[in-house]
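User: Can you recover a sequence for this backbone? Please restate the input before giving your answer.

Assistant: Of course. Working from this structure:
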């Protein structure tokens, strides 16, 4: 089940709005609240003057836009998750290849050391009468 992202978008917008008013008010919460109320009143008056009797239509348009934004957000999230999964798989493959290569080099080094050690041992043994 896919959950709707609309509450997340509304919450993010509300947090951004609160941050904007606090920033413009210099951190004073009382001034920020008065500015927000004044702006809300201006916006309400503007909407009422421009859209008489179209409240339900505007609400429907808002819902459609919200659904479209949610769908775009979900699409972007799915693409990002797919890219992360692909990158994780590539990183794991690279790590596996690097490990195999390292183990191969270690085995080659061990064989070389053992070969040289056996040569040195036979050389030292020949000094004392061994083969």
């Amino acid at each position: 089940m896919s959950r709707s992202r609309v509450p997340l978008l509304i919450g993010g917008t509300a947090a951004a709005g609160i941050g904007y008013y606090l920033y413009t008010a210099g951190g004073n919460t009382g001034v920020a609240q008065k500015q927000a109320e004044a702006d809300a009143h201006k916006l309400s008056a503007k909407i009422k003057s421009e859209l008489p009797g179209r409240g339900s239509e505007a609400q429907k348009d808002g819902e459609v836009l919200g659904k479209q934004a949610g769908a775009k957000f979900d699409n972007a999230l799915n693409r990002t998750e797919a890219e992360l999964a692909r990158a994780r798989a590539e990183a794991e493959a690279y790590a596996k290849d690097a490990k195999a290569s390292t183990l191969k080099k270690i085995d080659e080094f061990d064989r070389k050391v053992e070969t040289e050690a056996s040569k040195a041992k036979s050389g030292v043994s020949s000094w004392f009468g061994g083969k």
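That completes the design. The longest helix spans residues 55-127.
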